[in-house]
Specification:
11 strands; two-stranded antiparallel sheet; mainly beta; 9-stranded antiparallel β-sheet
């Protein structure tokens, strides 16, 4: 938000559009360092979501490139790691550090 000519103007950043075929590739099973498996799901029209055992799915909101966040925690960034077009891992960055979840 900025002031222009005695009025406030709000700019809303829109994330780049990611092709649905790429989003489908990101969906799958991932493994935490403590050996807990969780799912990244893709639903056409809705997008990606994290699904941990025993919890409700958490929508992933695109930020930039392969980086996403959840509506609950804006300071937690999830980034998919791609090598030669293949998804290798999902990294989580939050104020306490960075964690890597291997793709299964």
């Amino acid at each position: 938000m900025i002031s222009l000519d005695q009025a406030e103007v709000i700019f809303t950043r829109k994330p780049e559009t990611i092709d649905s075929k790429v989003l489908e590739k990101l969906a799958g099973t991932y493994l935490t360092p403590s050996k807990v498996k969780f799912q990244v799901t893709y639903t056409p029209g809705t997008g990606l979501a994290l699904a941990f055992p025993g919890g409700p799915p958490q929508k992933l909101i695109p930020v930039k490139g392969m980086q996403f966040r959840t509506p609950q925690f804006a300071d937690v960034i999830y980034e998919f790691v791609l090598e030669n077009g293949q998804v290798k891992a999902l990294k989580e960055r939050d104020p306490s550090g960075e964690f890597t979840f291997a793709r299964q």
